[in-house]
């Protein structure tokens, strides 16, 4: 049972993870190499409480008790009684190596070590420790105080007991844990970025209006927001890094027709730079035919990648669905959505596209599922 947690790195994610852990009743030690970041992290945790008090969702006393459960520290001696250490330092492997080695040296031998990495290898980090079976990924989503999903990542040597403890920890914070076998991009980013890349690529080919394409995506399926508005929200510099890493790992199916780079090289990074695919706010638009065609690629891309993940045993169908609902706000997950839409029609659409776009050929498991349901002969 995890009761005492250390969070290393008090930035955007670390301060939120500390807040969520303290709100779950755990005793938290927060460390950062920068004292100013520590102070900002505590102030941020207090702000979350203050907002909730204002909205009538908790009392002033409860908010104060949560912040009081977070203690800042600068000395690794403060790690000696922790059950779990979570690192949330910058996404640079050399920095992760240092911090993981520190945790390994300072935590009790039976404690777990978790990384909040968005995509670096848990197995590589674990290999630097004397307890690789006790190292896992706990991938919280931003903002962690609000987003329900935690991807619990299993590295090559992560033990079953560690995975179970990681899931139990996430549940104790009121989160929805989803078990993911390690792969580049993990689960949600892999499916989401594939869908977005397919949509960008198609729009680049046809010159479809972006606002109409976004409207068509929202109209046609479970996503709450279209890929262009979402890219602007995430930040196109971040999108660019994540997409090119995924292309490096999986190949050309993550190509986006150069759409992201065109924006980034013009200094258009999305909302944070005042504009990206759209000027500030996306214009109002209704779905049109070209937009619907982009939306079709978006959902077929998501489905194609989701079934690849299932085939590779990265996660099971129910967990894929839960992850897309809890991590991306989809109304239904891709598997449930595909069943509702009709598997055989989707397989036919993928078959038809696979002549010019072999990457979109229907995954064997989707074909088999359609066959089992009697929707498609053989
Ligand atoms: N920002 C997101 O949307 C998001 C979402 C999910 C996961 N993540 C992942 O979370 C991790 C942290 O990202 P972030 O956005 O919170 O970064 P951030 O830059 O906001 O915070 C990182 C913090 O780590 C501190 N730090 C740096 N080196 C350190 C060291 N050696 N020891 C202790 N503290 C150190 C920094 O001072 C900083 O306060 C990354 O791995 C990132 O990929 C980020």
Descriptive notes:
The chain has 378 residues and is an alpha/beta fold. It has an eight-stranded mixed beta sheet with strand order 3-2-1-4-5-6-7-8, with helices on both faces. Helix 5 (122-126) links the parallel strand 5 (112-115) and strand 6. The protein folds into two domains: 4-181, NAD(P)-binding Rossmann-like Domain (Rossmann fold), CATH 3.40.50.720; 188-372, N-(1-d-carboxylethyl)-l-norvaline Dehydrogenase, domain 2, CATH 1.10.1040.50. The protein contains 16 helices and eight strands. The model has no long low-confidence stretch (mean pLDDT 95). The site of nicotinamide-adenine-dinucleotide has 24 residues, from helix 1 and helix 4.
Short characterization:
This protein is an alpha/beta fold. It has helices spanning 12-23, 35-54, 60-68, 93-106, 122-126, 160-172, 188-206, 210-220, 227-234, 236-250, 259-265, 289-311, 317-328, 334-341, 343-354, 364-372, and strands at residues 4-8, 27-31, 70-73, 84-87, 112-115, 135-140, 149-154, 176-181.
